[in-house]
């Protein structure tokens, strides 16, 4: 490395064994930074016995991969389950632990906060959470640059969980909340240009687009068909992978299935994941016992096999920022049908590597899936073009851009940091 290695403090409200795209992304980013020689202090949520038993049993990459690095250290902050989603954590209030004391001990060159609004308490509408902006107290005292990273469309999540009536009452104050949550950070990074534009309209301060969100394109690859989970089943197969939650619109997959089956009678829909809507999903899927498989969670080679095995990957969620599973499917050589949502037009190019459907329109979604499955030549062309379309989002390329941004921000802070540092 030509530049001086950095001391990076990274706070995240989501990390293994809590299964989300954020958890996977944080792990990949930290590992890459460690491999480049940077010193990383990871502050992550602690697991405890208040969570469902299956949460702690997931075979996810985590601390065991990072601890061998001599330039790695970590702290697990106390948590409790999110009131709206018991499988995800919320930090305990700052009266129970101190971000400032942790940072004083580590003395970072820069502070990175992943999903800052979530850690502060936006996910729970301030009924839970840390109660103040993470890292900001120390950053102000020392002049240390601090940035936040947006992963999810938190405003859309609030709407899903509180309902339209409550959301409409809150709508006038949302720009104030967005401003309040972003103005305390030197930069607020978005991996999707569309998501950035949306939040700028909601009064986001110092927002910036940086394509930091990638996937491991060597791991997700068409060759993973050797791990095909259903080798004896040659039916046309459409696959969804994700959390079984309201904001993912998973129940709409059941609604669109009969429209597809009317055109392709032997079609097979496989839904992979878990979440609070598990029981309702399984209840509705019972109407199609031979056509829909609720697989549950999948990990490791089996999951890689599903991405490569699918004839079409489907995603009805309208709340995606820069969807990891869409990219994983494309890297695996699988065409994607997803809905028009922030960032999806940056991943899926209609007629080239998949199609974009109208949001909350099962018939239009089904029509797009059928268009691919009924046309072998179109399917073959999309399959061939899927992987090349997403290679620019390989982790190494994306994290290099992220690293460049860290150096740029630190250089801009320059003398201000040196004048205030007491380490």
Q: Can you characterise this structure?
A:
By secondary structure, the chain is an alpha/beta fold. It is about 40% helix and about 15% strand. It has helices at about 20-35, 65, 100-105, 115-120, 135-140, 155-170, 175-180, 195-200, 250-265, 280-285, 300-310, 325-330, 345, 360-375, 375-390, 395-415, 415-420, and strands at about 5-10, 40-45, 70-75, 80, 85-90, 110-115, 145-150, 185-190, 205-210, 235-240, 270, 290-295, 310-315, 335-340, 355. The strands form three sheets. The protein has a seven-stranded parallel sheet with strand order 3-2-1-6-7-8-9, sandwiched between helices. It has a six-stranded parallel sheet with strand order 12-11-10-13-14-15, with helices on both faces. The two termini are about 25 Å apart.
Rg over CA atoms, rounded to whole Å, is 22 Å
What proportion strand? 15-25%
Count, helices: 17
What is the 3D shape? globular
Mean pLDDT figure: 93
- What is the strand arrangement across the widest sheet? 3-2-1-6-7-8-9
- Structural class from helices and strands? alpha/beta
Helix content: 25-40%
Largest sheet: 7 strands, parallel
> What is the number of strand segments?
15
Low-confidence segments, given as residue ranges, are none
Task: State the distance separating the first and last CA atoms.
Answer: 24 Å
């Amino acid at each position: 490395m030509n530049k001086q290695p950095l001391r990076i403090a990274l706070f995240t409200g989501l990390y293994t064994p809590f299964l989300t795209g954020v958890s996977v992304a944080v792990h990949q980013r930290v590992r890459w930074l460690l491999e480049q020689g940077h010193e990383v202090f990871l502050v992550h949520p602690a697991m405890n016995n208040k969570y469902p038993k299956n949460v702690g049993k997931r075979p996810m990459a985590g601390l065991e991969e990072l601890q061998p690095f001599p330039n790695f250290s970590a702290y697990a902050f106390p948590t409790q389950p999110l009131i709206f989603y018991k499988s995800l954590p919320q930090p305990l209030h700052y009266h129970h632990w101190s971000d400032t004391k942790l940072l004083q001990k580590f003395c970072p060159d820069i502070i990175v906060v992943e999903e800052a609004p979530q850690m502060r308490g936006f996910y729970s509408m301030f009924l839970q959470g840390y109660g103040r902006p993470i890292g900001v107290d120390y950053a102000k005292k020392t002049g240390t640059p601090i940035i936040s990273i947006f992963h999810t469309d938190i405003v859309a999540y609030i709407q899903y969980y509180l309902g339209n009536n409550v959301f409409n009452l809150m709508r006038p104050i949302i720009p104030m909340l967005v401003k309040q949550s972003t103005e305390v950070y030197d930069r607020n990074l978005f991996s999707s240009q569309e998501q950035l534009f949306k939040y700028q309209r909601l009064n986001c301060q110092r927002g910036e687009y940086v394509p930091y969100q990638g996937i491991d394109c060597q791991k997700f690859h068409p060759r993973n068909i050797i791990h095909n989970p259903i080798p004896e089943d040659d039916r046309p197969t459409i696959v969804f992978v994700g959390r079984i939650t309201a904001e993912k619109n998973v129940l709409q997959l059941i609604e669109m299935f009969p429209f597809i089956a009317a055109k392709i009678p032997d079609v097979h829909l496989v839904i992979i994941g878990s979440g609070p809507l598990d029981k309702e999903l399984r209840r509705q899927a019972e109407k199609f016992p031979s056509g829909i498989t609720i697989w549950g969670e999948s990990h490791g080679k089996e999951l890689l096999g599903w991405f490569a095995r699918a004839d079409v990957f489907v995603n009805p969620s309208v709340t995606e920022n820069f969807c990891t599973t869409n990219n994983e499917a494309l890297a695996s050589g699988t065409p994607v049908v997803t809905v028009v949502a922030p960032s999806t037009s940056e991943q899926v190019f209609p007629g080239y590597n998949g199609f974009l459907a109208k949001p909350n329109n099962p018939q239009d979604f089904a029509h797009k899936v059928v268009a691919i499955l009924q046309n072998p030549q179109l399917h073959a062309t999309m399959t061939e073009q899927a992987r090349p379309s997403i290679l620019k989002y390989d982790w190494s390329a994306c994290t290099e851009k992220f690293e460049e941004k860290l150096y740029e921000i630190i250089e801009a802070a320059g003398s201000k940091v040196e004048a205030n540092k007491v380490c």
